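Suppose you are handed a protein chain with no further information: no name, no annotation, nothing but its sequence. What can you learn? This example shows the usual starting point.
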Amino acid sequence: MPLPKSEPAGKPGKAPAGKPERKPWKKKTPVEIVLDQEEKLKHEIAEIEVNLKAKRDQLSKFEQARKIFEAT
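A reasonable first move is to predict its three-dimensional structure. Written in structure tokens, the prediction is:
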């Protein structure tokens, strides 16, 4: 059984005291949507490349350590 709410629901369109109002919603054109998706994808790819570079560096260090162990 759901519990009743202790606070009454606020009126739509008004922000509660102490909180900034939300920006009004602006409808995007299909071109803007595609461009936003392109930017997000570029950012995601850049992050993945940074992680991949770090993992390659770590792999290189492990390979160097393996060569040292094999030499002894």
